[in-house]
Amino acid sequence: MTTIRIGVIGTGVMGTDHVETISKSIARAEVRAVADIDVGRAEAVAARIPGAKALSSAEALIESAEIDAVIIASSNPTHGPYTLASIAAGKPVLCEKPLAETAAECEQILRAEETAGTRLVQIGFMRRYDPGYVELRARVASGEIGAPLLAHCVHRNVSVPPLWTSEDIVLTSAVHEIDVMPWVFGREVVNVNWFSPMPNAPGVRRDPQVAILELEGGALIFIELFMAANYGYEIRCEIVGEKGTIELAPVARTVSRSDLRVQVDLAADWRPRFAEAYRRELQSWVNAILAWNSGDLNNVSGPVHGPDAWDGYRAAVIAEALVASMSSGGPVRVESLAIPGLYQQGRS
Amino acid sequence: MTTIRIGVIGTGVMGTDHVETISKSIARAEVRAVADIDVGRAEAVAARIPGAKALSSAEALIESAEIDAVIIASSNPTHGPYTLASIAAGKPVLCEKPLAETAAECEQILRAEETAGTRLVQIGFMRRYDPGYVELRARVASGEIGAPLLAHCVHRNVSVPPLWTSEDIVLTSAVHEIDVMPWVFGREVVNVNWFSPMPNAPGVRRDPQVAILELEGGALIFIELFMAANYGYEIRCEIVGEKGTIELAPVARTVSRSDLRVQVDLAADWRPRFAEAYRRELQSWVNAILAWNSGDLNNVSGPVHGPDAWDGYRAAVIAEALVASMSSGGPVRVESLAIPGLYQQGRS
Amino acid sequence: MTTIRIGVIGTGVMGTDHVETISKSIARAEVRAVADIDVGRAEAVAARIPGAKALSSAEALIESAEIDAVIIASSNPTHGPYTLASIAAGKPVLCEKPLAETAAECEQILRAEETAGTRLVQIGFMRRYDPGYVELRARVASGEIGAPLLAHCVHRNVSVPPLWTSEDIVLTSAVHEIDVMPWVFGREVVNVNWFSPMPNAPGVRRDPQVAILELEGGALIFIELFMAANYGYEIRCEIVGEKGTIELAPVARTVSRSDLRVQVDLAADWRPRFAEAYRRELQSWVNAILAWNSGDLNNVSGPVHGPDAWDGYRAAVIAEALVASMSSGGPVRVESLAIPGLYQQGRS
Amino acid sequence: MTTIRIGVIGTGVMGTDHVETISKSIARAEVRAVADIDVGRAEAVAARIPGAKALSSAEALIESAEIDAVIIASSNPTHGPYTLASIAAGKPVLCEKPLAETAAECEQILRAEETAGTRLVQIGFMRRYDPGYVELRARVASGEIGAPLLAHCVHRNVSVPPLWTSEDIVLTSAVHEIDVMPWVFGREVVNVNWFSPMPNAPGVRRDPQVAILELEGGALIFIELFMAANYGYEIRCEIVGEKGTIELAPVARTVSRSDLRVQVDLAADWRPRFAEAYRRELQSWVNAILAWNSGDLNNVSGPVHGPDAWDGYRAAVIAEALVASMSSGGPVRVESLAIPGLYQQGRS
Questions:
Q1: Given an 8 Å threshold on Cβ–Cβ distance, is A210 in contact with B220?
Q2: CB contact D263 to C (< 8 Å)
Q3: Is the Cβ–Cβ distance between A150 and A222 less than 8 Å?
Q4: What is the per-residue pLDDT across B259-317, written as a single tens digit (0 to 9) for each?
């Protein structure tokens, strides 16, 4: 098999983007099926992709003999069940974050993979494929700034659905920083803390929020989460080390001057900022499956070279600790399982 | 009198800079005397300034009939006593920060001024004269970003004397942000909190430190203090509001390219960064004295239009609360006197 | 046919990059053959690509029944002959710039395509696929800066082979700006002019050089070409219009601070700067071939949606006018053929 | 005498700014008289400055025994006559650019100074006092970029009076670059050339224009002059050397984010950009007069340490050559007098 036949569950914004990206820009992969609870929407997406069909159910897609690998981009409550179904079907699966709605549900996925004896699940933490974060991590690892001591992160959106609670924001947006910062530092999170100024958004939601993650050894990560920041979508990250600092450069293709100002445009959502990360994530995932299928195990216990179920579980545990800190108003220790043997291999 | 005759106590780095600035760049003022416990150093400075002489004691300088106004730039323990002596002599005085070594000692200065019935003391919080901070404050006040919710401040030095403790850093360096941020927000500090990652500097000092100030109404100020940052001197400040953000622009006069990089040079200490602020501080102080002397009271209770003894006292109270948080490991409420009537006039 | 089988002639830096890019990142395409006058080099490249073989001659590659489309990345003198051979074989061909060594030789290619009745040739002006230039052009076309009046371009390399002459630099490096700027402005070049300060490089070569292109209607393009700029590879372009300006943003993924400076790294050559442009160029070329093969003509007279033989010819004519200006020391009028009907279709 | 008593001729924008700056920010100087053909305007300005009076004529001001030094900020045609009158009165004079309306008239001023045997005239080329240009020049002189080969200058205004001709723009705006660039390079201009795209402004005026200055040794200066650029006031300058480049950094005190953009504000005219340069120019001029009066000749033939009448004459000669190039459409050689002995002393 030289081409991976992919089925995509969920044809909302993210699922449709993945279908488009695979069709236009991913080598050795093709979308062969899409499924959505809104069948008409699935059919409309499938109609644009030669060789793809709309299926009546996610389960049918997962079990289809014509599908080699599964992408889950449906609503958050379905992530856990569809991931478990994919593991049961023995198929590689790329699940959008969060892996499941609770850490406890993530544990079930860990156990299912352990039973299967193979890492099949990749979690959609695409920032690990963003060229900026990749360079940031490599430079930190190079030692050029000495030991990394602090990080300042900013994560701002134009707006979010009005019904999103403070907890939702931590569980579904903050998880990006919760995953990527330990990966950049090469250190686990051991404690968390939570702050918020007076509410910005109407209603009871606290927005902005500031999460503080303490890593093994003491380094501190400050994360500003501001979902109704209004002015634009923006991600920033600066790592402060003993001898210097490294930060993500601003992302822009052009600079303009008009009306008494020099200006760089900002995007209205995350997709332009991370389009290249998504492309690289998908290509890397496909390449890992091809390598696994060809028997090139490369010392890794499954067709996953990227963030796996363990990373999804860890992010859920840390996010839940933050939610606990939100309630208690003080620091909360991160308590998690010991890492199972299956997930130790190849982990830096 | 159309020229203010100034006496400068202390001819270290800061005092000598003030003498130079007044002589070269300040209208309607002249340095007539300098004093230092190192008499030879005072004589060397005086020799460069036509019309200036070195005096044998700070007290003699303060009481000299040839001196209209006093600048205190001597060691920190002398600030309180010399300020009190200047008040006793009825002379306007510009005292470098800190106003005194403890909040309690600052209270004595407040009481002395109240007794005198005139605000004579300006505290050397020069950032209030920095064109960047002035513009930042004006833009926040304009309402263009809506209510300000958060601030991110960075305060980094190349190095500090090895014997400086964490407490010294808060009491003598952090006071700049402690003073200027409430001034930018137009809100008082009500609570503080303190964090620090693993130590960077050798010995028991914690460095970097992160101070969190909570303002009335809930806005949060995050201040990274990093004294042995090694790479350069740098000050940053971003204000995050409901509708947008405003931050200090980088300070540089040229950009260069060489050796596979585009580069902006950083200074090794704070003086180039705030040279213009010091010049404006001194000119403003001289102008206020001239206006007071000419009977143009402008509704202000003394020859001080800038930060006064009350501001020096408030900064000391907040800094001491941070030191308490450093010990307790949790939030500390800022407890201070009610503002006396003398200091209410003209305060925004 | 759902996958384009590509043969690559020339396995130097550029050819090898194309082979890698196609194998790792291009959908619906595969490299099936490589050819090089250095057979060992071709074999080494082919060995890394499953399904690819090294062929003994470029001609054999062009004529192979197993090759659908040809990439020419061999030495400049071979571009014309191999392009003509590909047209004779009826195969789509992507030829690295320059299209041929002289405008006269480019004319032969135009005639060959006219005879064939199909546009088969794309010229490797990858800047048209660079996201920065694409955005620059779209914004100019949007009218937001009014009529574009001027452009300032900078094209700097670390070094070039010592034997390159001033003419070589114009004919092989300046052609990028010569092609892309009329495309951005939507106007043809009618006059050229040439300047150079005192020589930088040793020997008789003039470096830097400044080319001035005058477009129809009068707009002026200033292009600094500096091949031995030493400090790094850098491309800049600012368009100045009646109401404002637009320029390419700096390209960087991280910013660092150390040793008293803030720094952005520069690349040592053009490949990192244009890696994404090459990927998009190749994917677009493959997509156009697939669309042509599937009968979706889209009103275009051949499997080429990008810069074609006419663009390669025009660049050669303008570059030769610049070389004439170099000799004459004054302005030179650009004289070219009228555009043949084959090339008019779909040209904006 | 320890304070210089200054008379200011002309109370338009520039003259009023100088009066304000001297009064508020210049040590050891005071404005004692202002004159204007609009007497009411002069009286209004004088009324704001304690100790200053409005005089009925410029000549009376120049000859007044209460005036030590003269600033000429009246209309361009009066510059030459008032400068000559000041020389005749033996008084130091700071004349706004241009020194006179023609190079020939500037020659008369040179001869008057030679007859007086003293350099009394400073010309208001304030960019030589701008901290950015000062740093640019020092870094070029340091050799860090090797020999400087090229410069790219941009000089843009929001608008100019509709009746200004292309010649006016060269003679009164371009003179800033014409003066400062040879000063930065340490080389004289030997040839000039002139280009312009299609007109932007209505009427016959060509705008933007591009002036090319060739320096001794061959270095080339490209100057874009765009008077009706609409979008804002902006000055840029990049020096390209054998080993690297140095450019003026953008000037801004704050950066803001709102409405899907990151933005730096631009000024509507030149005054904020060069306010600090004007202050330093005035203080330096006052200091030079004080030093001259005190007999500290410092090897300079008069109370002028800045750009002098010779610099004003050279700028006029080069500007006139540019106007000749505008007519002839080709390069024009700069022909000037040999530098008289009076002006050689202290010239770098």
A1: yes
A2: no
A3: yes
A4: 999 999 999 999 999 999 999 999 999 999 999 998 866 656 888 889 999 999 999 99
Cβ of residue D299 closer than 8 Å to a chain A Cβ: no
- Cβ contacts of B89 within 8 Å, gap of 6 or more: B62, B63
Residue C253 shares a structural domain with residue C304: no
Q: With beta carbons less than 8 A apart as the criterion, state whether A198 and B219 touch.
A: yes
Same domain, B96 and B170: no
Residue D89 to residues D67, D83, D100, D157, Cα–Cα distance (Å): 11, 10, 18, 37
> How far, in Å, CA of C220 to CA of D208, rounded?
10
Best mutation target among D257, D262, D270 (most A Cβ atoms within 10 Å) is: D262
> Neighbours of B (≥3 Cβ pairs closer than 8 A)?
A, C, D
Q: Are C125 and C307 in contact (CB under 8 A)?
A: yes
d(CA B6, CA B22): 9
Chain segment B118-172, per-residue pLDDT in tens? 999 999 999 999 999 999 999 999 999 999 999 999 999 999 888 889 999 999 9
3-state secondary structure of C211: strand
Q: What is the pLDDT of residues C99-154, one digit of tens each?
A: 999 999 999 999 999 999 999 999 999 999 999 999 999 999 999 999 999 999 99
Task: Judge if A103 and A202 occupy the same domain.
Answer: no
Q: How far is D250 from chain A (nearest CA, A)?
A: 10
User: Among partner residues C150, C198, C243, which is closest to D230 by beta-carbon distance?
Assistant: C243
Q: Which two tokens stand for residue D119?
A: 């350099």
B148 and B120 part of one domain: no
CA A58 to chain centre: 21
Q: Is residue A324 part of a domain?
A: no
Nearest CA in chain C to A21: C27
Which of A262, A269, A270 is the best substitution to test chain D (most D C-beta atoms within 10 A)? Answer: A262
**Total of domains in chain A:** 2
Instruction: Please tell me the distance from the alpha carbon of residue C126 to that of residue C124, in angstroms, as a whole number.
Output: 5
Mean pLDDT for all residues in chain C? 94
Strand A234-241 vs strand A245-248: parallel, antiparallel, or unpaired? antiparallel
* One domain, residues B132 and B229: yes
Q: Do D259 and A231 touch (CB under 8 A)?
A: yes
Indicate which CATH number applies to the domain containing A195: 3.30.360.10
The closest alpha carbon to A238, from B154, D216, B61, belongs to B154
Q: Identify the CATH number of the domain in which residue A118 sits.
A: 3.40.50.720
Cβ atoms of A13 and A272 within 8 Å: the answer is: no
From A271, A298, A328, give the residue that closes a domain.
Answer: A271
Instruction: Please check whether residues B157 and B250 belong to one and the same domain.
Output: yes
| B110 and B120 belong to one structural domain | yes
Give the integer Cα–Cα distance in Å for C287 and C280: 10
Question: Which pTM value belongs to this model?
Answer: 0.95
* Size (chain B), residues: 348
Interface probe for B, chosen from A242, A328, A332 (most Cβ of B below 10 Å), is A242
Residue C1 confidence (pLDDT): 43
Chains sharing 3 or more CB pairs under 8 A with chain D: A, B, C
Asked if the Cβ–Cβ distance from A144 to C246 is below 8 Å, we say no
CA-to-CA separations, D83 to D46, D80, D105, D168, D313, in angstroms, rounded: 22, 5, 11, 21, 13
Judged by a CB distance cut-off of 8 A, whether residue D106 touches chain B is no
| pLDDT of B73 higher than 80 | yes
Query: Measured between CB atoms, which of A22, A135, A255 is closest to C247?
Result: A255
ipTM of the prediction greater than 0.85, yes or no:
yes
What range defines the domain where residue A288 resides? 4-127+274-313
DSSP string, D243-274: S-EEEEPP--SEEEEETTEEEEE--SSHHHHH
